[in-house]
Specification:
Blueprint (H helix, E strand, L loop, with lengths): L1 H5 L16 H4 L5 E4 L6 E4 L4 H32 L6 H7 L13 H8 L2 H10 L4 H18 L16 E2 L1 H16 L5 H12 L2
Antiparallel strand pairs: 1-2, 1-3
Helix pairs in contact: 3-7, 8-9
This protein binds zinc ion.
Length: 203
Amino acid sequence: MAAAIAHLRVRLQPRDMSLSVKEDTLGTVEQVPVVCPTCRYSGTLPDHDKALNYALVYNTYLHEVRDELRMLVRVEQLFASFPNSGHYLKVLKTRLDRPAWPHFRDDPDFEKALEAEPDLSEFLKNKCARYVPGRLRKVKELVQKWENELDFTLLKCPVCGSGSLTIEPELFDRLVSIAESTLSSTEMSPSTSSHRLVAWFHR
Ligand SMILES: [Zn+2]
């Protein structure tokens, strides 16, 4: 269990899932670096067709989202243990409006509970979506969707056989930032971003 927590990779900011990586972008990478989150195997895939690219991209999202889901469930449990707390973090993360000072009350017991779980405290203060109930709903939907949809037989880890391969984190971050910049700039064509990716990959 401790090992699982050590490997937890929660985004600095929750991913904006509406800006998803297009699996075609991965087609521009000749050798795709992959990792197995279960046994930590890392290697490269020289041959990857469209179906495998799709499975790799969304399995990588799936692993990130599962990590986030674990944290959000713990946040929900913490909040449920303090149903009447006016602690600013609980108030801020559970209301859709923008509550301010009059709604906050000091809550030393909540503080103590938070101090006992440093990773949860860090998540809640720096990495957690603003509105927890909404994000939790969305994240559960995504986990279910991808678990039903993905062909995990394509992704079987060659070493442990039980894990499924994901894209190496640095490359995946790069793919996401390309997806974001492509969508945020009307001038940039997808082929320009593909060239940027190839340039990055071979640097
Ligand atoms: Zn493995």
